[in-house]
Design brief:
Helix content is 12%, strand content 39%. By secondary structure, the chain is mainly beta. The chain has one domain: Jelly Rolls. A 6-stranded antiparallel β-sheet has the order 1-2-5-12-7-10, covered by helices on one side. It has a 4-stranded antiparallel β-sheet with strand order 6-11-8-9, with no helix packed on it. The longest helix is centred in the first third of the chain and has 7 residues. The radius of gyration is 16 Å and the shape is globular.
Length: 166
């Protein structure tokens, strides 16, 4: 299957950060707000997961959430996941199935890290899953502008400019 076929088959929709997604799981159980850290506003489901697809011309812009996010590789080509820690340290990981090229099939982005993802091979895509616990809520989602994030992390302005939408 190619990217367009996967988008149609799984009924994926455009995601605000870039790429295409569909929520596939949201636990019925919830964690009450008084049992969550103070940076959560309201109750959260125990866990959520989505299908997520990026193409070579649709990157995932730098954003952060309050939870750890586990990325699972399904098919396609290598995905480069960029991260900036709360302390300003930059790192990246290659997610894919070329294990002899130091790619890994699953990776967890720590809570509160800014992260972005891109496909390195022209005319290709990566189809992955993302799991979040406590469950994802857009109240936890921060999608800064290039100007805002560059001001916070000026030494990473070049990669921030490449992987933000405004």
């Amino acid at each position: 299957m190619d990217a367009k076929e996967i988008i149609n088959h799984f009924n994926l929709a455009p995601h605000p950060e870039g790429g295409y997604f569909k929520e596939i799981y949201r636990s019925k159980g919830t964690i009450q707000s008084e049992n969550l850290a103070s940076y959560f506003n309201g109750n959260r489901n125990y866990c959520t997961s989505i299908y997520f697809l990026l193409t070579a011309n649709k990157f995932s812009a730098f954003h952060k959430i309050n939870q750890d996010e586990i990325w699972h590789f399904y098919t396609g080509t290598t995905l480069k996941l960029h991260m900036i820690s709360p302390d300003g340290d930059y790192s990246f990981v290659l997610i894919g199935n070329n294990f002899n090229q130091n790619e890994i099939p699953q990776f967890t982005v720590p809570a509160h890290y800014y992260f972005a993802a891109e496909i390195l091979t022209k005319n290709s895509f990566a189809f992955v899953g993302c799991t979040v616990s406590p469950g994802f809520d857009f109240k936890d989602f921060v999608l800064p502008s290039c100007k805002e994030l560059s001001k916070e992390f000026p030494k990473h302005a070049k990669i921030i400019a490449e992987l933000t939408h405004h």
